[in-house]
């Protein structure tokens, strides 16, 4: 098993009891649920950071004039699978 770290935090007693009860109802330990919640949080924040970066890059492309006309894209998409399929717009 991989090494692990202990995290401690203070929570209101009623929150702790409700959390323990819900975890137990699903046959899970509190530790298991907390690990899953932490993993999901890290994954979500990592994805948000990636999307932010892609958005900033896209805005830079727009400001630099590196864009493709939407009508050209739609015409290209509409031609997919047809004998006279268009080349992708640049």
What does this structure look like?
- The protein is mainly alpha-helical and 90 residues long.
- It has one domain.
- Helix content is 62%, strand content 0%.
- It has three helices and no strands.
In short:
By secondary structure, the chain is an all-alpha fold. It is 62% helix and 0% strand.
Distance between the termini: 51 Å
List segments where confidence is low: pLDDT < 50 over at least 5 consecutive residues. none
Cα gyration radius (Å): 24 Å
Q: What string, H for helix and E for strand, traces the elements in order?
A: HHH
> Which shape, going by the Cα principal axes?
elongated
Number of DSSP helical runs? 3
Mean of pLDDT: 96
Structural class: mainly alpha
Main pleated-sheet profile: none
Helicity, in percent?
55-70%
> Number of DSSP strands?
0
β-strand percent reads: under 5%
How many discrete structural domains?
1
Secondary structure elements and their pairing?
Layout: H1 13-25, H2 30-63, H3 70-78
Give the key terms.
mainly alpha; 0% strand; 90 residues; 62% helix; 3 helices; elongated; single chain
């Amino acid at each position: 098993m991989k090494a692990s770290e202990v995290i401690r935090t203070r929570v209101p007693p009623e929150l702790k009891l409700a959390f323990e009860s819900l975890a137990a109802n699903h046959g899970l330990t509190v530790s298991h649920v907390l690990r899953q919640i932490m993993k999901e949080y890290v994954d979500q924040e990592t994805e948000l950071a990636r999307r932010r970066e892609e958005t900033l890059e896209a805005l830079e492309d727009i400001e630099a004039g590196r864009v493709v006309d939407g009508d050209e894209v739609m015409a290209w998409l509409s031609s997919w699978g047809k004998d006279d399929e268009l080349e992708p717009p640049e």
